[in-house]
Amino acid sequence: MISPFLVLAIGTCLANSFVPEKEKDPNYWRQQAQETLKNALKLQKLNTNVAKNVIMFLGDGMGVSTVTAARILKGQLHHNSGEETRLEMDKFPFVALSKTYNTNAQVPDSAGTATAYLCGVKANEGTVGVSAATERTWCNTTQGNEVTSILRWAKDAGKSVGIVTTTRVNHATPSAAYAHSADRDWYSDNEMPPEALSQGCKDIAYQLMHNIRDIDVIMGGGRKYMYPKNRTDVEYELDEKARGTRLDGLDLISIWKSFKPRHKHSHYVWNRTELLALDPSKVDYLLGLFEPGDMQYELNRNNLTDPSLSEMVEVALRILTKNPKGFFLLVEGGRIDHGHHEGKAKQALHEAVEMDQAIGRAGAMTSQRDTLTVVTADHSHVFTFGGYTPRGNSIFGLAPMVSDTDKKPFTAILYGNGPGYKVVDGERENVSMVDYAHNNYQAQSAVPLRHETHGGEDVAVFAKGPMAHLLHGVHEQNYIPHVMAYASCIGANLDHCASASSTSSPALGPLLLLLALLPLSTVF
C-alpha cells in the first residue's frame, strides 16, 4: 500500500509533468493502434525463404529492463521524452522469450549461455563449446565432449563468417563460436593451471587461430593475449598491464597471417584509422584488435584509435557480403554487461544504444528477403528503474519524491546488489550530494558487492527475416541456433532444403511454409 505522503508527492509531480498535446486526443491512440493492427495482419504472410545470411546480435547482459531504459535514453539523446521512442530491435516483427539457466546454475554466466545460443546445447557455468559433461576447470573432462557452433556449420557450408565484439575476441561470448574450453578464463596459457597445460588443453586465443583457421572477419579487443610475455603493446608502450601474456612465446598474429593463402588479401589492423582506410572489396580476411583487453566504453572511446561497434559492423558486412553463398555474423555488444557489473548504468545503457545503432546499420545494408537477423541477450542483470517518475524524466535522474523512511532522495535507477551500496554516518548516502549524472556514477544498490550480479529472469529474442516466426514463444535458449540453422539450410537438419536458393524454385515457398508450421521435434 502506498503511503499518503507518497501519493501526494507523486500526484503533484505527475500533474506538473509534460503531456504532448496530440496524446490528449483519444483518436491519436486509436489510430496508432489501428496502424499497428494493420502491420500485424501483414505478418500472416510468412517469410519462408531460405536465409542466405544470418546476423546474430548479442547484447551481453541486456535484460528487458535494460532494453526499456536504453529506449528511453535513445529518445532523450534526440531531445524527446524517450518513452515513445522505438529502438531498431523494437521494429522487429517477432519476439520471444529465452530461458537462460545453465545446466548447473539457476542464474547463468555468459559462457554456458553462449554455448547454448551458438552451439545449440546447454552447458555448465563457465564452460564454452562443450557439453554439460565437462566440468569447469577440469581439463580432462573436455575431450570427447566438444560441441560445434553455428559459425562452424556456416563455414562448413561454404559461407563467410565473422565475429565482431566490444570485448576481447577471446571472451566468453565469441569464444563459444570457435573454442572448446573447460574454463572461460583461459584467455592465454598464462591464465591456465599447470595441470591443464600438461593434460594438453589449449588456451582460447590459441584456439581462435587454430580451430577454424579461415574465419573471414575477427574484430574486437584482446591484443595482449596474442603476443609473448612482456611484449610491449603498440599503443600503450608504458603500460605493463597491456604487455603480451603468452608463456609459450608464440606470436599468434604472425601465425594468423601465415595460415592465409598467398593469393588472398589478408589484413591485420590495430586502430580505427587503419580499419577505415581499408577497401573492403579488396579484403578477404580481416583481423582487427583495437585494445590490449576489452575495448573502451563507447562514452570513453578514442575516436582516432578505436572504431565504434557500428563502424566495425559496417566493415564486416562489406567484406562478408561478397560471398555469393552468404554469411553468418556474430555481433556482441559485450560491455553492456561490464557497465552493469560495475554499477555504472550510464555506461551500460550507452553501450546498448550503440548496439542498437549497429542493428540499424546492418538493417540498412541487408534485406529481410534473404537475411535472418536475431537480437537477444545471454542473461539479465539485477538492474531496475522505477519510483513513479513522470513522463520525460531523465533516465539517470531522481525519483519525484524522497523516501518515506529515511527522508532522502533516490535515483530512478537502482541495483539489487553491487558496488553502489554506500553508508554515510550510519545512513544511506544522500544522492543529492553527489553527481549522479556522471558517466561513472555507481547507482545505489540494496546489497554491497564488489561486482553486481546477473539476473535470472528470461530475456527477449527479437527476430526478422526468413523463418523469424519460428521464434514465437517461450523457448529454451539452446533452441535459437537450431532456428538459425534451419532457416539458412546449414547444419545437420537439411531435410527441408529442396533448394539452396529462396528464389530458384517456385515450389520451395509452400514446402517451407508447411515444414515451418510443423513442430520442430518432427523434423529435427
UniProtKB/TrEMBL annotation:
Any Gene Ontology CC annotation: plasma membrane
Subcellular location: Cell membrane; Extracellular vesicle membrane; Mitochondrion intermembrane space; Mitochondrion membrane
Binding site for Mg(2+): 60, 171, 173, 332
Cofactor dependency: Ca(2+); Zn(2+); Mg(2+)
Residue positions binding Zn(2+): 60, 337, 341, 378-379, 454
Record note on cofactor: Binds 2 Zn(2+) ions.
Keyword Glycoprotein assigned: yes
Transmembrane segments: none
Catalytic activity of the protein: a phosphate monoester + H2O = an alcohol + phosphate; pyridoxal 5'-phosphate + H2O = pyridoxal + phosphate; phosphoethanolamine + H2O = ethanolamine + phosphate; ATP + H2O = ADP + phosphate + H(+)
Example of a GO biological process term: biomineral tissue development
Topology term for the membrane: Lipid-anchor; GPI-anchor
Signal peptide stretch: 1-15
GO molecular function terms attached to this record: alkaline phosphatase activity; metal ion binding; phosphoamidase activity
Pfam families found in the cross-reference section: Alk_phosphatase
UniProt keyword annotation of Metal-binding present: yes
EC number: 3.1.3.1
Positions annotated as active site in the UniProt record: 110
SMART domains (alphabetical): alkPPc
Matching InterPro entries: Alkaline_phosphatase, Alkaline_phosphatase_AS, Alkaline_phosphatase_core_sf
Keyword vocabulary terms for this entry: Biomineralization, Calcium, Cell membrane, Disulfide bond, Glycoprotein, GPI-anchor, Hydrolase, Lipoprotein, Magnesium, Membrane, Metal-binding, Phosphoprotein, Signal, Zinc
Complex and partners: Homodimer.
Family: Belongs to the alkaline phosphatase family.
Record's protein name: Alkaline phosphatase
Source organism per UniProt: Phodopus roborovskii
Encoding gene per record: Alpl
